[in-house]
Amino acid sequence: MSAVTISGVDKAYGKARVIHGVSVEIAAGEFVILVGPSGCGKSTLLRMIAGLEDISAGEIALDGKVINDIAPKSRDIAMVFQNYALYPHMTVRENMAFALTLKKTDKGDIDAKIMRAATILGLQDLLERYPRQLSGGQRQRVAMGRAIVRDPKVFLFDEPLSNLDAKLRVQMRSEIKALHQRLGTTIVYVTHDQVEAMTMADKIVVMNCGVVEQVGAPLDLYDRPANLFVAQFIGSPSMNILQGSTTAEGFTASDGTVFPLPLFEKTETALAWGIRPEHLRLADSGVPAVVEVVEPTGAETLIVAKAGNNTLSALLRERIRVAPGQHVFLAPDLTQLHLFNIDGRRIPSTV
Amino acid sequence: MSAAVGTRERGELLKNGAIQLMLAINAIIMIYPLFVMVMSSFKTNAEIFSSPFALPAHFSLANAERVWSETNFVRYLANSLGITLAAVALILLFSTMAAYAIARYQFRLSALVLMFFLSGMTVPLKLAIIPLFIQLDSLGLVDSYAGLVLVYVAMGIPSAVFIMTGFLRTLPRELEESARMDGASEFRIMRSIMLPLARPALVIVAIQNAVPIWNDFFFPLVLITSDKFKTLPQGLTVFVGEFTTDWGVLFTGLTLAALPITLLYIVLSKQFISGITQGAVK
Q1: What number of other Cβ atoms are within 10 A of residue B208's Cβ?
Q2: Nearest residue to A273 (alpha-carbon basis) of A248, A322, A236, A239
């Protein structure tokens, strides 16, 4: 049974349509991440689930019940905001108790729930502090605590980590994931950071310009992107994409450089050729290229090279001594090629 | 290099010194009349004219005694207090609700409604005193608490709505949304989340209205005739005669009248200042 069903949802502000017929199924207990570039409508979609934005067309259902016209407070959904939105004049305890007090929960019950949430999040010693006395990470935890005590059907997270520094972000990422495994509550999470999406999600919904580009498990999206947008959005460093067309010799890029193609029945003409950086090797033969930039990070080395007019990046796990200006041969792993047709859709590989 | 630092430090010192000096002079200009008032309240009429700036020969409470016995001082004080409190409370209540609606909800004519309130600030109410008097008279409100309070409320609302709207607009939308998701009603959001955060603005509005209302002489003079409804500034005019004025007693009365509002200001000054500088420093 799916926890949240979004079917054919549109959002328009006056004449400007920002979401075009989005449909997504979210199963109970699933960790779903809406990801996409700024302005793709992912936050708007989340706010529509929360009830903070009207739904212009279509339906959103929670546990099979359409909630289009139900007020946010009656939806049994909790949300963690990007800037935490902690009530500045209330202590951590009061912040967490607010929703429960409004529901006229028994005092002892409230204390028990707050203690439980505080223990999960390690906030026991901070309950009497005010938000201004907390660090960014602690505020983030309080915001989550405020959601946890309500024990809602669904948690919504709106870019919760974007105000934290890089190190804390990585730490909170695993904390949120651990929290999900512990509570088992459905989570809908919005981010523009594809790394966050890849590392945390059970299911990723890639959005662009108000439409869903692809829905799937993180590695499915990585290995089989449905189209050019997803191919370039998912993965860091991003996939090398070359424009051109298939010819007798292989794939001829727009500048005339020829790249190899796997042998398969050519059902469709490919207009774009893509390969992830880690599937490019330096070899004794292949596509001739000139190294432009070498970025060693220790574990791996990123090489940016130019083949004709095409810039390609290659991520090498082994330590190879190369210097900018050096002539090398790039050998793509032909089993890992992605070809895209005229509509930008991925041509299913028959290898 | 150390010489350069020295010069800069000296320049800084000079600048700070000049600022301090200006502030000191300003403070003296402000405080000295009050000082004279307090000192004169202990003097006899003759002493005030013979040595106006000297300290009183002896601190006699004779003037205070006369204020107490020759006027209904307690009555006036209670009237002033009651009228000021009632007016400020009503101003806060109505202007906060109006400002909250204008600031936090989107509706078609919100800008127009705000303009309507602001237009109230452009009308000097004292110019309209004759029609106002006629209006209050036909409503039977002349020479009553209600008449005076209503005039003050009408006078205070425009600027109060202006200040509150500006402040409430700066409060983040997410707080409201978060409370809404937590299950709070609209009224609850206003009362439990927004108003506690708007306290600096509320204090500003309260003080900005309380001081002129407390000190007001004009409207009680025009609207109040019965002794039992008189406010302090008005009541104290007993000592201002056509031919002689008992300055000593008058100063005592004024000192006593100024006391409550001064205390109020001292108590709330921290909030008042934080309210004024909000937005300026963040």
Answers
A1: 17
A2: A239
The verdict on residue B47 lying in a domain is no
What's the Cα-to-Cα distance from B251 to each of A221, A281, B242, rounded to whole Å?
Answer: 85, 96, 17
Tens-digit pLDDT profile for residues A211-258: 999 999 999 999 999 999 999 999 888 999 999 888 888 888 888 888
Q: Residue B59 domain-assigned? A: no
The nearest CA of chain A is from the CA of B248 a distance in Å of 49
Instruction: Number of A to B CB contacts under 8 A, please give it.
Output: 52
* Contact yes or no for A150 and B182 at CB 8 A: yes
* φ and ψ of A181, to 5 deg: -65, -35
Are residue B81 and residue B129 in the same domain, yes or no? yes
Same domain, B145 and B15: no
Question: Which class does domain A2-231 fall in?
Answer: alpha beta
Q: How many domains does chain B have?
A: 2
Tokens of B230: 């008189």
Same domain, B139 and B199: yes
- Angle A84-A88-A91 (CA atoms, 0-180°, nearest 5)? 100
B positions 188-207 inside 8 Å of A (CB): 188, 192-193, 196-197
Are B80 and B208 found together in one domain? yes
Give the tens place of pLDDT for each residue, A103-162: 998 999 999 999 999 998 999 999 999 998 898 889 999 999 999 999 999 999 999 998
Closest CA to B274 of B210, B208, B203, B206: B203
Residue spans of the domains in chain A: they are 2-231, 239-340
- Within a domain: B253: yes
Does A48 reach chain B within 8 Å, measured CB to CB? no
**Tally of CB atoms within 10 A around A247:** 11
Helices within chain B (DSSP H only):
2-40, 45-50, 62-70, 73-104, 110-122, 129-138, 145-170, 173-181, 186-188, 195-197, 199-215, 218-223, 232-235, 247-277
The Cα–Cα gap between A294 and A301 comes to 7
What digits encode the pLDDT tens for the residues B69-96? Answer: 888 888 898 999 999 999 999 999 999 9
Contact B188/A85, CB-based, under 8 Å? Answer: no
Q: A85–B196: do the CB atoms touch at under 8 Å?
A: no
Interface mutation target, options A46, A89, A90, A96, chain B, most CBs of B under 10 Å: A89
Torsions phi, psi for A345 (to 5 deg)? -80, 150
Residue B81 shares a structural domain with residue B180: yes
Options 2.40.50.140, 3.40.50.261, 1.10.600.10, 2.40.128.50; CATH for A239-340 is 2.40.50.140
Supply the range of the domain harboring residue B153.
Answer: 72-277
pLDDT per residue as tens digits for the range B119-168: 988 888 888 899 999 999 999 999 999 999 999 999 999 999 999 999 99
Residue B222 lies in a domain: yes
Q: Provide the pairing of β-strand A154-158 with A186-191.
A: parallel
How far is it, in rounded angstroms, from Cα A151 to Cα A154?
A: 9
Residue A171 three-state SS:
helix
Across the interface, which of A82, A89, A102 has its CB nearest the CB of B182? Answer: A102
